[in-house]
Amino acid sequence: MRLGIIADTHGLLRPEVFPVFDQVDRIFHAGDIGSLEILTDLEAIAPVTAVYGNTDGFALRDRLPDVVDIDVDGFRLLLTHGDAFGVPTPEKLNRSYPEAEIILFGHTHRPLLTIVDSVVTVMNPGAAGPRRFDLQPSVGIMELEPGIPPRARVVPLDRTV
Fold this sequence. Notes:
This protein is an alpha/beta fold and 161 residues long. It has helices at 17-20, 36-43, 58-61, 90-96, and strands spanning 2-6, 26-29, 48-50, 67-72, 75-80, 102-104, 112-116, 120-124, 138-145, 148-156.
């Protein structure tokens, strides 16, 4: 199963996301979406699971949870924005969700891909929306296959906007 991982769109869905997510089976949005239209546009690519972030308004908060704990292709996946942790770190997230095998989060706008506790894959795809903090916009791709550790990468997007 191929997953598209996105966060911190803040109301901007860059056109570069569409070819990157072209072959994904499912999309996970880790919050600070900006508008329901972003989810609608992503759903045209693949089914979307999303959480709200600290900047999302009532329209999104009424529709979405703040945390999703779900089985995906035999992996226990945790999706959160991460703002409840102040500055989320892989270690803080792993301590709070020790059963998760994959943890996806946003909030910091900084891409991160690491292994915690030898078996937990933790990914922040970076921010896919308006460029902030002089960071290049990015998303993530993750491949899941039962019996094999997740394979993932951060994919940089255009720096112009």
